[in-house]
Amino acid sequence: MRLSRYFLPVLKETPAEAQIASHRLMLRAGMIKQASAGIYSWLPLGYRVLRNIERIVHEEQQRAGHIPVLMPTLQSADLWRESGRYDAYGPEMLRIRDRHDRDMLYGPTNEEMITDIFRSHVSSYKDLPMTLYHIQWKFRDEVRPRFGVMRGREFLMKDGYNFDLTKEDALHAYNRHLVSYLRTYERMGLQAIPMRADSGPIGGDDTHEFLVLAETGESEVFYDSEITDLKFGDREIDYDSVQQCQSVLEEFTSRYARTDETHDPAIFDQIPEDRRRVARGIEVGQIFYFGTKYSEAMGATVQGPDGKATPVHMGSHGIGVSRLVGALIEANHDDKGIVWPWEVAPFQVGIVNVKQGDATADAACDALYKELTAAGLEVLYDDREERAGAKFATMDLIGLPKRITVGPRGLEKGVVELTDRRTGESEEIKPELVAAALT
Ligand code: ATP
Ligand code: MG
Ligand code: MG
Ligand code: MG
């Protein structure tokens, strides 16, 4: 992409309404524009990051054997009356009436709708196990939408639902989700720690939240510092193996890690004092096992091997896709701007032409731009008639992992400069070696 033809409305001033770094930086880098309280338009740069996160979530869900679908944002109130949640959900639910006076709502989550799909089409245990998921906008009329996309009212969520014959199978689905979530966050360059949590309005007994440690997080968390040493890494996992998934769960829940809702000082105080941590975290996902709560209320049964109809065991599993954009910035920024991890960066490489209009510099930039793009990299070429200083400031603000600086002086020596956004380290390199250095 040539910046002269792109739409990147960066702001010079720090917007007064933004209280935390990620919100400030998303506004300043022209990633989002508020449409109304807690509702945002995604501008081109922000949209690219959102799509990258979605792509990783899709890939990891499907790697775990989960099946993508897409359900609507608007739902009929009748389904929610069946489960009893239409009245129970409270003012966070946006209720709408259509022209025929039918009660509708903008879905805050989809347990009822997916259970309805399941009961309409599945009747035998032979079709199980089954996990369906989608990535779709949700609406929750939060009392205090704030921090930009972190606590929006309209937000993008991946929500998945498992259907199993027995509790044991459903717990395997739970463990499988935990493993796939560990992989998902690590691929984005994030450490998200599974913590014992409270189930809230979804209901159920077993639940973990995934938290990214950050001072600006809204949750208070208590953990044993040893938990932060655990990495999933690139280990191979067979998602069908009950034993393998179970052992990953045991490993990653073997140290104390809880949110304030389930915190137990009596257990916490047994951890050696130098390992006890009280901190703040951002909830980027949550998994639940809730058994037959919805299947019983809504009549989602299958015929078991014994021929008897039995309600399926279910769980639901969410990832805050749009919140992750903010969480990633909270975890990856410095005083100059954002520092994107490679996997989610809107572009991986920026080219800065320090002397636009100089025939040699322009030609070298054009050649690099074409070559790197052909090599499969996503490149933003700053070809504007701007001062070099302003171009550097924009690149630092939008945080592309690598910058190539091209100018007549370097080209005379036969080199360009390759700079790493995170370390700030630069090296001189021959233009023809850049592609190899980046791929
Ligand atoms: P919170 O405690 O932050 O209100 P939640 O527990 O109500 O979140 P869940 O029902 O567990 O949310 O939804 C799954 C995920 O969706 C959350 O882990 C979070 O990452 C994301 N999420 C929830 N509410 C919002 C919101 N208002 N804005 C952005 N993302 C959200
Ligand atoms: Mg909530
Ligand atoms: Mg929560
Ligand atoms: Mg939650």
Automatic annotation (TrEMBL):
One of its GO terms (molecular function) is proline-tRNA ligase activity. This is Proline--tRNA ligase. Residues 33-341 form the Aminoacyl-transfer RNA synthetases class-II family profile domain. Gene3D superfamilies: Anticodon-binding domain (3.40.50.800), Bira Bifunctional Protein, Domain 2 (3.30.930.10). Its EC number is 6.1.1.15. It catalyses: tRNA(Pro) + L-proline + ATP = L-prolyl-tRNA(Pro) + AMP + diphosphate. Keywords: Aminoacyl-tRNA synthetase, ATP-binding, Cytoplasm, Ligase, Nucleotide-binding, Protein biosynthesis. The keyword Cytoplasm applies. Belongs to the class-II aminoacyl-tRNA synthetase family. ProS type 2 subfamily. It is found in: Cytoplasm. Pfam families: HGTP_anticodon, tRNA-synt_2b.
